[in-house]
Amino acid sequence: MPDLVTPTWDYAPAPEARDLASIRSSYGLFIGGRFVDPAEGGSFATVEPATGQVLAEVGEGSAADVDRAVRAARRAFPRWSARPAVDRGRYLYRIARIIQERSRELAVLETIDNGKPIRETRDVDLPLVAAHFFHHAGWADKLAWAGLGPDPRPLGVAGQVIPWNFPLLMLAWKIAPALACGNTVVLKPAETTPLTALAFAEICQEADLPPGVVNIVPGAGETGRALVEHPGVDKVAFTGSTEVGKAIARAVAGTGKKLTLELGGKAANIVFDDAPIDEAVEGIVSGIFFNQGHVCCAGSRLLVQESVHDAVVARLQRRLATLRLGDPLDKNTDIGAVNSAEQLERVSELVAAGQAEGATMWQPPCTLPEWGWWHPPTIFTGVAQSHRIAREEIFGPVLSVLTFRTPDEAIAKANNTTYGLSAGVWTEKGSRILWAAERLRAGVVWANTFNRFDPASPFGGYKESGFGREGGRQGLASYLDSGAVG
Ligand code: NAP
Ligand code: MG
Q1: 457 part of a folded domain
Q2: Is 275 in the pocket of ligand 1 (CB under 6 A)?
Q3: Which member of 53, 215, 357, 473 has the lowest number of beta carbons within 10 Å of its beta carbon?
Q4: Catalytic residue at 191?
Q5: Do residues 329 and 246 share a domain?
Q6: How far is the CA of 327 from the centre of ligand 2 (A)?
Q7: pTM for this structure?
Q8: Are residues 234 and 194 in the same domain?
Q9: pLDDT tens track of the chain, all 486 residues?
Q10: Residue 243: nearest ligand to its CA?
Q11: Is the domain of 132 the same as that of 33?
């Protein structure tokens, strides 16, 4: 007899149309408003993580190309910065509207190039990308009222380097405030995810943005280094690993360039014994399994009050067994592909370390596709603070569960990390939320939710998670010279 109380639901395939995105076989660099060939003719392949197939050959920017792009941005700067601010806002509104119009296509393109589920690119990445441009379009003519001095001035040319985990969203976080404040930009997308940045270059053409205001130079780490070290760059904005961030901080020191760094994280997600457990479980899942855990602010360390540990872990396991891993273009997919073979290797190495150090691993039954790079959702219980999986950023769908007895112990354990990007607190008591938020050394503290973003809300780190804020009024300060001595 069928089980009528807990029926098993099967999902029919619901693939989004792949051909909504047209991918060319090769791409150039976007410099001075045009697509150009790389000076030294180099190129690299971008690959679909879900299949391992090559999607396109992309021109690789050399130091000579970076120099061309920075010169183009310098040439564009005087006129762009002198435009009436309301006019700059109009361009940003236009870009935002084109992104909205093309959002289905861009979501498909991002999913194919990155491996993340279409449900996320469609419902999270793209709406936030458009929102960032709309938000900053509104700021363009109100900078004098942002509390950053009566006559804040743009800095000049911004050199921006971004990672692969939210390719178009990180581009939006970088380009929208830079342009709103009157700067011009040279941006290097991540090597494994250049396609939406190149689609954005087309959008700049479609929006009639003056040539040179935005330049996109794809490439690898060396291209990023050439950009960061170029003497014609006035401001460096970097999002990526703490290791590369430190190297950039050293390269920029003493040059007078303004610098913001958004680096790694190892966030604590704290569940107190009075938390509504079912809601907390949903928050834990979105905290660590959203975007396959490739999230700098992921809630990768779950701190559960000892008295509710078993109940939380049991419900979490039951919930994980319902997650669907597979084709990222399928609208029912919860967990997509890992972005690259290198990243899968990094995640696997840390998972092996977790087992070797004595934590207990649990994974739901789950069949991994034959091709591409995949990692099942994974929970470690019995984790000690000294374990590598409690200290190092895994950047994959892997959760480390630790316990605490008192609120003070929860805070001490949460802050026992070199990072400080985000944290989560689950409790019924408002007073406890405020108490914890005051004590957590993290740039963002979510209460009874996790991984929520808004362009009006500043985002950034403490300690080795970096410095400077992106988003909100505070984010503008990174792209303006307020006249203050600093
Ligand atoms: P990554 O290796 O640091 O790369 C980030 C970007 O820097 C990429 O475009 C990369 O190029 C480039 N790059 C590499 N070496 C460079 C150098 N010496 N000089 C200048 N640029 C260089 O990081 P990832 O593995 O791509 O991204 C994962 C990391 O980013 C995680 O640690 C994560 O926490 C962090 N992240 C932080 C935030 C935040 O807002 N705080 C957001 C997202 C990600 P290639 O693509 O060729 O390597
Ligand atoms: Mg790719």
Answers
A1: no
A2: no
A3: 53
A4: no
A5: no
A6: 15
A7: 0.96
A8: yes
A9: 566 677 677 889 999 999 999 999 999 999 999 999 999 989 999 999 999 999 999 999 999 999 999 999 999 999 999 999 999 999 999 999 999 999 999 999 999 999 999 999 999 999 999 999 999 999 999 999 999 998 999 999 999 999 999 999 999 999 999 999 999 999 999 999 999 999 999 999 999 999 999 999 999 999 999 999 999 999 999 999 999 999 999 999 999 999 999 999 999 999 999 999 999 999 999 999 999 999 999 999 999 999 999 999 999 999 999 999 999 999 999 999 999 999 999 999 999 999 999 999 999 999 999 999 999 999 999 999 999 999 999 999 999 999 999 999 999 999 999 999 999 999 999 999 999 999 999 999 999 999 999 999 999 999 999 999 999 999 999 999 986 544
A10: 1
A11: yes
Q: Is the dihedral of CA 118, 122, 128, 132 positive or negative?
A: positive
Whether 296 is a known active-site residue: answer: yes
Which residues lie closer than 8 Å to 158 by C-beta, 6 or more apart?
174, 178, 183, 184, 185, 186, 233, 234, 235, 236, 237, 479
Q: Does a structural domain hold residue 458?
A: no
Residue 210 near residue 79, CB atoms below 8 Å: yes
Q: With a 6 A CB cut-off, is 190 part of the ligand 1 pocket? A: yes
SS3 letters across 157-173: EEEEECCCCCHHHHHHH
Whether residues 212 and 281 share a domain: the answer is no
- Give the distance (Å) from ligand 1 centre to CA of residue 3: 49
Closest ligand 1 atom number to CA of residue 166: 43
Q: Do 136 and 253 belong to one domain?
A: yes
Cα 59 to middle of ligand 2, angstroms = 14
The ligand placed nearest to the CA atom of residue 66 is 1
Residues lining ion ligand 2 (Cβ < 5 A) are: 46, 113, 192
Q: How far apart are CA 280 and CA 287, in angstroms?
A: 10
**Domain containing residue 66:** 18-262+464-481
Length of the chain (residues): 486
The catalytically annotated residue of 296, 297, 464, 470 is: 296
Domain count along the chain:
2
For 31, the enclosing helix (H) or strand (E) is: strand 29-31
Q: Which ligand is nearest to the CA of 60?
A: 1
240 and 378 fall within a common domain? no
Interior/surface letters 364-374, b for 16+ CB within 10 angstroms, e for the rest: bebeeeeebbb
Atom of ligand 1 nearest to the CA of 188: 9
